[in-house]
Amino acid sequence: MYEISVMPYLDGDKYVKIFTIDKMPKHKLEKYCIIINPPKLSPFTDESKCIIAFKSLAHPTHIMQLNELTDLMHLLHEEPSGYKIDYQLSKLMIKNKDQHNKNVMFYIRER
Question: Which domain holds residue 62?
Answer without folding.
Answer: 2-110
